[in-house]
Amino acid sequence: MEKLISDFSFGLFVWQSIIFIGLILLLKKFAWKPILDAVNEREEGIKNALLSAENARKEMQNLQSDNQRILQEARLERDAMLKEAREMREKMVADAKNEAQAQGLKMIEQAKAAIEGEKNAALAELKSHVATLSLEIAEKLLKEELSNKESQVKLVEKMLDDAKLN
Prior knowledge:
Mean pLDDT: 87
Structural class: mainly alpha
Strand content: under 5%
Order of helices and strands: HHH
Number of helices: 3
């Protein structure tokens, strides 16, 4: 260190200082300014990218919330449609049951009326046959009873006795 101080040359110091200041000025003009501009530009780009990423994240959150809302609305609409379809099905089944029951009752009434008509016709025919049979039997009995003279007399006397009693 003593050698440096003893060999110190003021002229050399001035020239070195001038060269150093010139070098600093040249570096400032041609290197530092472009380097600092590039660094600032890079910093600005990073800030913009971060802001874009934040905006994209917020937009994604909004889209997700919109998707959730739309999905919820779709579920509610689906549930409403299913409920309406179930109600329509139940109404249709109930209407079909009521109509079938009404048709059944109508058919039963028609069958009862047909049975009643057939029954009345059968009874009328039966009465007709019974009357015919009764007349035939009475005719045969009367022929048989009245075929001999003695039976005729007894029958006439019996009818006269019955007629007098009344």
